[in-house]
Each structure stands twice: as structure tokens, then as C-alpha cells.
């Protein structure tokens, strides 16, 4: 079955860290760029980060650069999002998404169901 | 930065045609992709590269792109089409690698 499954969300205090994981199955994970996209409660989609198939290229939104880090383990078919120095405004459902290309610069053809991150004292 | 502008809402009666615009500076030079998101669910790709439908997406969904506006068109609208719709482009700058529009809530009257 072709799918992405995120995990690692939860409630965390401001300033703390959290690591999200996303496992892919049913496709050749190592051939595709991967993305993280978030959606704050009642808001729209916001691109967060992208990693190329070979991990050589990584891109971040201004709102998370320097605090979040994207990585992947192709042997385990997992993409990670390490989130440090979390702020209340980071509260959102975080989705991982598969890019149709290896570079991560085409269309998102598969999404996970998301994992909720809540940053609150 | 690159901004994509969508109307917050569009309303249409069942059986009619819904058109959802997505405005951006010279967006006609970019490949535009569209996603449908029903409440509590993950987004689903409904059109890519301006006008291509993924397998499994009904022919009622189509797209166009020219000048400063891309448009998602849904013909013969059904109750099940009620959802949020987002346009998206690859911008390619290191801090705006991908850009989403603000989303449009399609209401079926």
C-alpha cells in the first residue's frame, strides 16, 4: 500500500524540542524528494522544509530556518523533522509529503495524515 | 518572496460550475498544482502542471493558467466537492522553495 505515516507529535513546552518521523511504503522512497508542510488550527497550508532524494539539498521556510532541521534515512524509508526552540506559533498539524521528483521541485503526489504538535506552557 | 492570492470562499449550487482563481505575478510562467482538503483530512492532489489530472480524479476537475491567474474549474459540482482548495507552485528560492495559496473554501449551496 502506497502511504506515508507520520509520528512524533505531542504537547511540548515553549523552548523545548521534538522530532517528527515519517515512514514511506509502497514506493521507492530513495528516488523522491520529501517535504514537511504544516497547518495551524483553522489556517491554510504552510510549506516548512524540503529534502532532496540524496539528502544533498535542503530548504527551509524563513519561519523555521535555524530552529528546524530536515533529514532522511533511505535505508529505513524515513524522513525526519527535528524541531528545536519551539514557539507557541509552531502549533500545527505537520504533514509529510512525497514529491514526484527526486529534487523536490515538482508536485506533491502523496501526503500523510499528519501529526499534531502543540506548543504550550 | 512570491505570493499566491486566492479568494477565501466560493459558493455554487449543485450541478453548476465552480471556478477558483489563484493570482500570482506572472504565474502563467510557472507550473501550478491544486489540492483538495476535506475537513480533518490530508490534502489530495487534484490537478498538477496547470491542467493534468492524476489518475482517479474525475474529469469534472480541470485547470488553466495564463498571465497572472491560474484557475481550477469544477463542473457539475456535487455535495462531495465541498472542501478547501489550495494552489501551489515551486518558486525555487532557498527560503520560498514551495509556495501555497491561502486556500479557498468551496461551499455547495
Structure description:
Chain A is built from no helices and eleven strands. Chain A is mostly beta strands and 121 residues long. In chain A, the strands form two sheets. In chain A, strands 2, 4, 5, 6, 9, 10 and 11 form a seven-stranded mixed sheet that branches. Chain A is globular. The termini of chain B are far apart. In chain B, 0% of the residues lie in helices and 49% in strands. By secondary structure, chain B is an all-beta fold. At the A-B interface, β5 and β10 of A face β3, β7 and β8 of B.
Write the layout of secondary structure elements.
The complex is a heterodimer of chains A (121) and B (109).
Chain A (H helix, E strand, L loop, with lengths): L2 E5 L2 E3 L5 E8 L8 E6 L5 E7 L6 E3 L7 E6 L4 E6 L8 E8 L8 E4 L3 E5 L2
Parallel strand pairs in A: 2-11
Antiparallel strand pairs in A: 1-3, 3-8, 4-5, 4-9, 5-6, 7-8, 9-10, 9-11
Chain B lengths: L8 E4 L5 E6 L8 E6 L6 E4 L13 E6 L2 E6 L8 E11 L2 E5 L3 E5 L1
Parallel strand pairs in B: 1-9
Antiparallel strand pairs in B: 2-6, 3-4, 3-7, 5-6, 7-8, 7-9
